[in-house]
Amino acid sequence: MANNKEFIPALGYNWLTAYYDLAIKLTMPEKKFRNKLMAEVKPQPHEEILEFGFGTGQNLLLGHRASPESNFTGLDIDPKVKNIAKHRLQSNKIDIPLMLYDGGAFPFANKTYDKVFSSLVFHQLDTNTKLHCLNEIKRVLKPGGKLIIGDWGKPKSKSQRYLFYIVQLLDGFETTRSNVEGKIPEFMKKCGLLNVSEIGHINTKIGTYCYYTGNAPA
Fold it and tell me: Where are the domains of the chain?
């Protein structure tokens, strides 16, 4: 994958990024979906944990509060959201490394992390980029390490399918098609992750948010 890759900003457009947190509050049961995500991450003291696509820093803040002795790191491609996340963490006197990458290889050594988690990122990636990022995640996970993805998945009802058109209009039909077809677990398996499963979902005002987990080979 080429470096300095173009990316889809939060909410699809750069000028909307500042309203991302508000949009989440208005369209999703924020406390519920974030708490369930962190319950699946289940951070433990001294674990090395990476959030792929840290966005505005909300999940890192929640994770640190749940387990202050865990070693969190954030990785994102968008410098604008990095500034928002940095300000949020500094305001709460929390020091978590926030790193940017260029769309190529992740800037980490092989087998660095016990866990990697990601929320509302993969629906913004085309199929090749989804697969590239999953391969990079597998590379940086320790043997047996766990990946937790929270993202839009196959709608659980016709109404949820119709609602998801809102997301597709903002983020694009090409990148979201595989999500709505429920192919994220298939991609995880294709990249060599094991024990892949959809472990739950939450219906929201704009679609079905699903939770997927898998493990790096031991």
Answer: 10-215
Q: Specify the long-range contacts of residues 88-96, CB closer than 8 Å, at least 24 apart.
A: 88/56, 88/57, 88/58, 88/61, 89/57, 89/60, 89/61, 92/61, 94/60, 94/61, 94/64, 96/60, 96/64, 96/72
Parallel/antiparallel/unpaired status of strands 98-100 and 48-52: unpaired
* Residue pLDDT, tens place only, 38-63: 999 999 999 999 999 999 999 999 99
User: Per the CATH hierarchy, to which homologous superfamily does domain 10-215 belong?
Assistant: Vaccinia Virus protein VP39 (3.40.50.150)
CA 192 to chain centroid, in Å, comes to 19
Mind listing the pLDDT tens digit for each residue in 179-204? Answer: 999 999 999 999 999 999 999 999 99
194: left (phi over 0), alpha (psi -120 to 50) or beta: beta
